[in-house]
Amino acid sequence: MSGRNEMSVQKIIDLDPMEIPLTTFFPAASLTALEGERALFDGAHVDFATGMARIAIQSHVLRVDGAIVLIDTCVGEHKDRPLRPTWNRRSGTDFLKQLDAAGHRPGDIDFVFCTHLHADHVGWNTRLDSGHWVPTFPNARYLAGKSELANWRKAAETEPEVNHGSYRDSVLPVLDAGLVDEVSPGEGFVEGTKIIPLPGHTLGQIGLEVRSGQGPDLLFCGDAIHSPVQVSHPEWSSFLCDDPALAVTTRNGLIERAARGDTLLMPAHLRAAPALGVRRLGERHQPVFCDCEGKPL
Ligand SMILES: [Zn+2]
Fold first, then answer.
1. Per the confidence metrics, is the pTM higher than 0.70?
2. Does 295 fall in a domain?
3. Which of 101, 128, 165, 259 would you label with 152, given CA atoms 20 to 30 Å apart?
4. Which tens digit of pLDDT belongs to each residue from 46-56?
5. Residue 79: which domain range?
6. Is residue 202 part of a domain?
7. Within the chain, which residues score under 50 in pLDDT?
């Protein structure tokens, strides 16, 4: 994924593939509805033989205007996640090695941008050090949505282990270290960036728009789109969405925007392709897998 105008994007993969039955992940979905586009999705995004949807749990490293921004931090290591066996007490993963191979040490990260605070987006916020959770990226400002943070803070008051325990082990330690900046839609933090609201999956989810001088803008859109099948079927919200109907409205807005051709979508869990464009097909839309400059793969 090469850059343009000093901008570059790299993926750091924590867990891939993660498989979930399509009809569990998206309760309104069916394989039959995807049959006409089987060639587009089979293998990378849906296994038609087993009925499993496939996603990746990964971070994006964005270099823009001289700053290094890590977008979402996956599952992490050593976290107690008994309800999700593939996330539970992981160790020996190569997440930090991949980051190093991409040219970045933990101390180099300037910003950690959290689209939302689910357990698969905050795990590497912290690491275990002598029995304590400490910030993995000690020189970073961690940017979290003000309303997203308020919602989880409130939930944790009555249920400290909320969200698989990730508020306690992956959010509170960076708050306590004074590394969190609460941000809101409309704000930016380096030249060319703007935070946008993406409510629905969680009510406080935010995205990051990165403007390019030439070529399409990049829109890091978290879990507003989990899988490219939702470009063809935006009405399929995930079983994890706080407000599934609002998630549909938000997703339709992103799809419409990308269909104009000036924006590429960067969903957190997109496998196999750097970026997602959208093509109009009459009243419908279809995903276009492309590089970060908008060139179809
Ligand atoms: Zn997620």
1. yes
2. no
3. 128
4. 999 999 999 99
5. 8-290
6. yes
7. 1-4
